[in-house]
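Task 17 of the worksheet. Students: predict the tertiary structure of the chain below and write it out as structure tokens. Keep your answer in the requested format; marks are given for formatting as well as content.
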Amino acid sequence: TESKVILDHFESSADDTLQVNFNFSFPRLKCEYASVDATNFMGTHDAGLAARVSKVRLDDKGKSVGRHEDKKKEVRHSTDETHEGPETALALTTDNFEANHHKYDVMIVNFFAPWCHWCQKLAPVWEKSSATIRQKHPSDEQLILGKVDCTGHASESLCIKYRIDAFPTILVFRKDDKGNSEHESYHGERSVNAITAWAEHFIAQLKKEVPKTRNVDADKDGVLDSHNGVGCMISGLLHVQRAPGMLKIQAVSDSHDFNWETMDVSHTVNHLSFGPFLSEQAWMVLPPHIAASVGALDDKSFTSDQHIPTTHEHYVKVVRHEVTPPARWKAETVTSYGYVVHSNNIQKVGEVPTVRLNYDILPIVVQFTEKKQALYHFITQLCAIVGGVFTVAGIVASITDKGLSAMTKKQELGKLG
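Model answer:
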């Protein structure tokens, strides 16, 4: 095998970009918040050209529970809602949570923080929605709206237990929940009409007027108002400029405030590669060490420490390989992109937990050529081997002969004991 390094050059403007293929799984980052952003070395955002990104919701075991579609419009909020009279939403703490959980068929809970801007806007809407439900279904233990203050000493542990890292978070609890049950979350419009209509759907489920499901589209606009799933698998491809850049994944929302101390971006890199996908024949042509470098990060997991904001950084150096197989294979030259990677964790209070993939596409090409060995090379090597064997055999024979001669002389002189 012959190898050489040459400077890469672009034959056309189409060669100025490179395809990036990725598939990451986040067991604790919800698809609603997961955002993918590509920037180049000049800081230009949306540097990924012709980006195609898809999200799949995952349960707590990492299994797919459905495809996620990002909302095409912002979450609507009632800004002029007021609630007069006593608070009707049930205040929940560690002392009364479980008792009420198994008292009502469905308990819908608003996990909030008083300092949260969006929670403050939701508070009167939530109280009025609770009052509306109670007026419509008095003395009914089928459904109730509750609330948990995640900053309160008597309820803080509930927010830790249910991994509340975005405020407000609205979860659904059912009487028949088991210890490991998942709880669907609400992501619909934050208005009294929308919330009460969504809650009424659960009453209809209890009355068996509609099929029981954890995926509810109460307003029938084609986008789920609530669904299950605690994690997210993000996959796709980007076309980026052949220059240093960064792929960044983190939680982003225009209707939530985040608790960065509990935000967990632990992840598994299911796949990461550069360039077009290779055919089965191309994989057979690549030498093992080159094939291994094409997906050097594949199937590797990275874990964050609990309650410590952790950012994961991956530094990737990408090199283009061209492998030319022997002529007798009748196969074309295979072009692949291998990389080496160094990963690091950053733990810093106030740091936004993020996954950053920093890549640098080197302007060089490593060419490998498989050539058939000429006959005279084979004969020369064979002669060298045979000559070496005879030389060593001669040396051994000479030493052995001299040793025997010396022993014979000693025996003749009677000196051999």
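Marker's comment: DSSP finds seven helices and 20 strands in the chain. The helical segments are 97-101, 117-136, 156-161, 192-206, 280-285, 288-294, 375-412.
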